[in-house]
Amino acid sequence: MKHISAPSPATSRRAFLQTSATVAAGAALTGAAPFGVHAAGSDTIKVALIGCGGRGTGAAAQALSTAGPTKLVALADFFPHRIKNSLEQLKQRFAAQVDVPAGRQFVGLDGFRHATEAVGPGGVVLLATPPAFRPQHVEHAVAKNVHVFMEKSFAVDAPGIRRVLRAGEEAKKKNLKIAGGLMSRHSQPLEEAIRFIHEGGIGEVITIWAYRMHGPVGFTPRTPGMSELAHQIANYSNFTWLNGSFIVDWLIHNIDVSCWVKNAWPVSVQGMGGRQVRGEPDQLFDHYAAEFTFADGTRLHAQGRHINNCYDFFGCQVQGATGLAILGEGQPRPRLFKGHNPTSANLIWSFKGEAKDQYQVEHDRLFDAIRNDKPYNETERCCKSCLTAIMGRMACESGKLITWDDALASDLELAPGLDNYTMDSNPPVMPDAQGRYPVAMPGTTKVL
Description:
Elements: H1 13-23, E1 45-50, H2 54-64, E2 70-77, H3 80-94, E3 105-107, H4 111-119, E4 124-127, H5 134-143, E5 147-150, H6 158-174, E6 178-180, H7 188-198, E7 205-214, H8 228-234, H9 240-243, H10 246-249, H11 252-262, E8 268-274, E9 287-293, E10 299-306, E11 313-320, E12 323-327, E13 335-338, E14 347-350, H12 358-371, H13 379-398, E15 402-403, H14 404-409
Helix pairs in contact: 1-6, 2-3, 5-6, 6-13, 11-13
């Protein structure tokens, strides 16, 4: 096998940012000169929700549940019925904190601009649209001096990752706060378990397995009169240009947790995947297996499957020199064992007590940072986790060995010109005469 030169623990922060800055030259954000934007403890923080599906509505509820006065002032979504449903749900719980008249309910692809401007400098936007739109929306929020909560995933390709990274650096200059929706990083049980591992509780970490295996991802058939673009956005989990694939948008949490455990980022990945059972007219592989290699030669195996009547497991297993950990998303009460058999007799640590809702904690920390002017910017870590998942998709779809540096430097866009799409645009993938969409073919598909 050809030797792969590797950066120090999966690329230093400086090298990572230098690379992204170099390949994204000319894409600088516009905006005001650096300044501090924060609310005093008694100030009302205005909030806008952009992307009004279930996760977005949940994020809005969590933002409105943080300490100190908050007010939801704008909603934006591609679909008017999602705005209506989200508004009704939020009014039931937070009637006094919701002030979204018809004039601040924005439908369409440009609604994010109006919603961002509605909160104004020092406000907060909650970005929960399909991930393909995340780079443009983050850039616009930072340009308008608005704090950001961005739901995962953070981009679907390397050009998008570089855009978000640049926006994050600009946010630091402006003292804007950015939080990312990798909520496992805000789970007290997981924080304690990983601290125990980092302190040597199971010995040196040798191998990590990240799993997400369950039933099929849902699909809603196109209704009469619905545009192709609307159909794909409504089924964004099924189209690679919108969500980056199952391994990116669904496995990202446990890939992130695994890299947190390892305290490093991978330098290369190879993998496989395919579409063995799935019959729905979309682009999804129904199984993935990606083998990531770290700079020290240790491995992370990420396995995803969404097929009925199969063995299911959702979580991570960490094999150390002297013990085993079972943790991650899907495992709310992490456990550590001596040896490598997870029996009750071998249990050496488990979380005790009641943990706070990790989804709420991530918002509590963001709004506390805004009110008390604390440094808070999760952009770089979120982008590294997302790039790790993206390079996993690249390897599985192409059958090639993909390095971190090659993945980050890639100029391949899954939706070229997306920033200029209108409601009447055709999406970047279209069905053939039989209603079938293009599906990646290992050995043939180009990913760099």
